[in-house]
Amino acid sequence: MTLINDLRTTTRRSSDLSKHSADVFAEAEDHTVQITRRDGEPLVLMSQREADARALLLQFAADLITVTLDDEGTLSSRMADRFPWMLALSPGDQAQCAKDLVNAARASFATGQAHLAIAELTSWRETATALAAGLASYPVESLEWLEDAELVERP
Predict the structure, then answer these.
(1) Is residue 118 within 8 Å of residue 56, measured between CB atoms?
(2) pTM of this structure
(3) What whole-number distance in Å separates Cα of residue 92 and Cα of residue 52?
(4) Phi/psi at 44 (nearest 5 deg)?
(5) What is the pLDDT of residues 71-93, one digit of tens each?
(6) Kindly report the CA angle at 103 between 100 and 108, in degrees rounded to 5?
(7) Which residues contact 116 (CB under 8 A, 6 or more apart)?
């Protein structure tokens, strides 16, 4: 069973690592590269960024499974127990956050694109952090949005 669910995975022979290492490494910075070997199982070469994103996605999946196994309270309250930073959000935003995180996780798992869930998680956590620090406030309706963009000189 393969865990490589990347639409952009390419396959290279192990001899390519010695003959064309710069090309193989450049590919691995862009997407996962499967290295085939005659004397063993294929190996996978990827960037540290990709490996970290996959590890974060697996941790996030474990957190979501833990949340769904509990049947006490609403989804947003159970998620706030697992992700305490959600408590800085309004109750309505907590519900939206929970929904958005589950949907982003589903999309990530379905497409093998870890960044979808990680970006959503990071975005909501940073929003909660900004609210907690007083950098943003509720209600959002009280914000004044500028209609026209103003050109600013380059510093």
Answers:
(1) yes
(2) 0.68
(3) 31
(4) -120, 135
(5) 889 999 999 999 999 999 999 99
(6) 120
(7) 104, 107, 108
Amino acid at 117: A
- pLDDT reported for residue 17: 83
Q: Write the secondary structure of the chain as one string of H (helix), E (strand) and C (coil).
A: CCCCCCCCCEEEEHHHHHHCHHHHHHHHHHCCEEEEECCEEEEEECCHHHHHHHHHHHHHHHHHHHHHHCCCCCHHHHHHHHCHHHHHCCHHHHHHHHHHHHHHHHHHHHHCCHHHHHHHHHHHHHHHHHHHCCCCCCCHHHCCCCCCCCCCCCC
Residues of the chain with pLDDT below 70 are 1-7, 137-143
10 Å Cβ neighbour count for 53? 19
CA distances from 43 to 1, 12, 63 (A): 13, 10, 29
